[in-house]
Description:
It holds the Pfam family Hydrolase. This protein is α/β, with parallel strands linked by helices. It is 45% helix and 11% strand. It is globular, with a radius of gyration of 17 Å. The structure holds 6-O-phosphono-alpha-D-glucopyranose and magnesium ion (MG).
Amino acid sequence: MIKGFIFDLDGVITDTAELHYKAWKNLADEMGWDFDYEINDKLRGISRMDSIKVILDHNQASLDEETLAELATKKNDIYVSSLDEMTSEDYLPGAKELLTHLRTEGFNVALGSASKNAIKVLQQLNANMYFDVIGDGNSVSKSKPEPDIFLYGSEKMKLQPDECIVFEDAESGIDAAKAGGFYSVGIGPKERVGHADLRFDSMAEATLFEIKSHFKDLF
Length: 219
Ligand code: G6P
Ligand code: MG
């Protein structure tokens, strides 16, 4: 029986992927590194430090940990200041409607994001009231594809993983949901989230009606 939902933030509730892209691109240009949308897509769901390592590997470059941390902080400063422009108009189409519907129907709802900036993003969107539990990049140490952030959410909601549906736009996020024994909904193309139990191209199609129709034996 489904009693709870766990939502990833970036790429599910709001499109921060573009803001992350701009901030990484800024740093990459300064460092003379190659960086494009294809690599940006590989950074979905993974932590800041893991992200910079992916970019470095792609450029066959190597730097010591301290320099890497400094550069990641530099990228983060650019990213955080770009969040000031975000408003309550910046939900992905369909996201606010689904969150509202879940509230009306009395489901438990948790956030399960790898971002250490999740609280700031929720504030900018004015989205705090939709969540009973907030799991972010500060809540657990092992990031996706490990299931820890979703297990954190289900435990805090006092639910079993098989009582929860995870919403994710990242390949590593669907892997994490599966590893934890959660049901999963993928948002995005088949090549990225085709391994989810149910997939939509965008949040606009992810209505509670569609979800209940697909997982009908679980409601
Ligand atoms: C999300 C995004 C990733 C990002 C990660 C860490 O999972 O999809 O692209 O790297 O959060 O975000 P942060 O805000 O802590 O740098
Ligand atoms: Mg995401």
